[in-house]
Inverse folding.
């Protein structure tokens, strides 16, 4: 073999090593290191409305905001009850949307499900047009992703999984998924073997529900679990085509909710595994390069404009909540001259 040839092989191997290192260290995919993620509000909860009757129209449990912040992003609240044009305008500026859990119905006009339906459609459109736009649904948000995917038709079944802490039963191919494919082995071990996923749901999604409504053609099931009565339900999903993810359990409660006797694990392993979901989602949102027109506009819309109330002290299941009053046009943003500060009780 000639010296030249050897040299070429040597050079080639250096180059390919270099490319290998670069692609594993820096992610060419990343479009932003300062993601801003929308978090959808929902109808005021029964308990919060009982504490302040008729005062608040909608809320966001602070644990969802902190979940996103803890993953390395900032958040913007997304209001319910707005026309589609509002959701189009705001999603164009955001890098992804989190659909939180909660306790509302999907059939209410101007509510969480209607807003979620707009968000889903717009996100789907953006992805179809080559704009990587991730969605993450937790508990009711997970159910909402499938509800919208099912043409806004009911598909769930009642079940018994309140205050149930569970390890995940992974499906055979789960490690081929985007959500778990690059997860550290230590995180998979915890999720597989320790009861670290807290469940608080009255509805379950079964395999039958997925096949019956053709949802299995659009979504991959990554894990299942069994409720207190032995009913098998789906606990983790990801969309086959879009960067849309859903978990039936509550990683944000592991990190940020401290209400007692609710079977929420706060062990070191539980916290590490919950944090995995936050970082995964935020990393997905880094791949989107939507942005606000100006820092001023960004400042007007960030959640930092709103006070956070210590609702755990008042026997809410949420330690802290963002409460939004009725009859206030939050759509305009919270500019310097607009006195729309939420009353703190
Ligand atoms: C919404 O669905 C729930 C549960 O099925 C039902 O109790 C309620 O009456 C429905 N509300 C409306 C406005 O249809
Ligand atoms: C969902 O599946 C369960 C059985 O797994 C069934 O009892 C229930 O009726 C299904 N839901 C709907 C809306 O068809
Ligand atoms: C917590 O969840 C486990 C299931 O992992 C269940 O066996 C136990 O009864 C639950 N505890 C409470 C207090 O609900
Ligand atoms: C919270 O619950 C405790 C214990 O049940 C009760 O004593 C207290 O009055 C409740 N506080 C409110 C604001 O409902």
């Amino acid at each position: 073999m000639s010296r030249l040839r050897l040299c070429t092989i040597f050079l080639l191997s250096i180059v390919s090593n270099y490319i290998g290192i670069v692609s594993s260290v820096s992610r060419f995919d990343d479009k932003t290191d300062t993601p801003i993620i929308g978090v959808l509000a929902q109808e005021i909860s029964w308990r919060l409305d009982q504490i302040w009757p008729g005062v608040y129209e909608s809320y966001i449990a602070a644990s969802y905001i902190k979940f996103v912040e803890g993953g390395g992003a900032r958040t913007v609240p997304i209001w319910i009850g707005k026309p589609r044009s509002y959701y189009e305008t705001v999603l164009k500026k955001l890098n992804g949307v989190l659909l939180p859990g909660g306790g509302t119905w999907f059939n209410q006009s101007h509510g969480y499900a209607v807003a979620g339906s707009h968000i889903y459609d717009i996100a789907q459109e953006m992805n179809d047009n080559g704009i990587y736009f991730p969605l993450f649904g937790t508990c009711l948000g997970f159910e909402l992703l499938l509800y919208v995917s099912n043409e806004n038709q009911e598909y769930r079944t009642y079940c018994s999984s309140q205050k149930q802490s569970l390890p995940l039963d992974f499906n055979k191919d789960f490690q081929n998924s985007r959500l778990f494919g690059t997860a550290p082995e230590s995180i998979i071990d915890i999720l597989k073997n320790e009861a670290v996923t807290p469940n608080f749901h009255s509805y379950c999604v079964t395999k039958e529900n997925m096949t019956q409504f053709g949802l299995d053609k659009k979504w991959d099931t990554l894990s299942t679990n069994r409720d207190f009565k032995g009913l098998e339900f789906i606990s983790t999903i990801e969309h086959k085509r879009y960067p849309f993810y859903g978990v039936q359990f509550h990683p944000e409660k592991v990190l940020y909710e401290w209400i007692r006797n609710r079977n929420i694990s706060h062990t070191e392993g539980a916290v590490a595994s919950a944090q995995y979901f936050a970082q995964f989602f935020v990393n997905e949102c880094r791949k989107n390069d939507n942005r606000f027109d100006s820092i001023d506009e960004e400042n007007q819309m960030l959640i930092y404009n709103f006070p956070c109330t210590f609702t755990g002290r008042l026997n809410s299941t949420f330690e802290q909540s963002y409460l939004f009053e009725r009859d206030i046009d939050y759509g305009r943003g919270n500019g310097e001259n607009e006195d729309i500060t939420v009353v703190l009780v």
